[in-house]
Amino acid sequence: MTKSLSKVQKKISKKGVNITSLHENSRNSQRLRRASARDDKLARVSAARAKVNQVHLRRVAYFQAAAIAEPGLFDPGHIQQLIQRYLKRDDEELVKLEDERRPGRPRNTREDLLKQRKAMDEREYDGGFWMPDMTEAANLKILREWNGEWTQLGTLKYVRIARSGTVHDSSFPPKGQS
User: Fold this and answer.
1) pTM (2 decimals)?
2) Which parts of the chain sit beneath pLDDT 70?
């Protein structure tokens, strides 16, 4: 049984039936509706997955830019500084939004979103901040050559670094405190 809309349309048109002149409840029109609904659902699920994946892509891209900017391996102290810089990435915008707001007015949605994201990242850092391992030469080479695609992230090795300095191996994609 054909699944995608284009294949269903092609199969129906091969029968010699004009797709635009089908009866409303005919078998062929029902097949077209099912295939169209299936394609719509797949597109919605794909878009939702891509939106969730953007968080991980942006994080790895940040550490890739740091790895490209500085040659050599990273020591734990330098990695902690990179994480601190990553956590403060939205501070300027947050201060700007707070200054623009008149006294007595509620925060706008963007400001709330930034505060929630900052609090979530801080909590994650307390338990273990998920990031690519930048202490191994082979992993750092792969990170520097990464082209920004989700499919290649599985080749990297990941760690969780806590605020206290403890380092634990992690997996991709991150699941809880893996």
Assistant:
1) 0.75
2) 1-2, 176-178
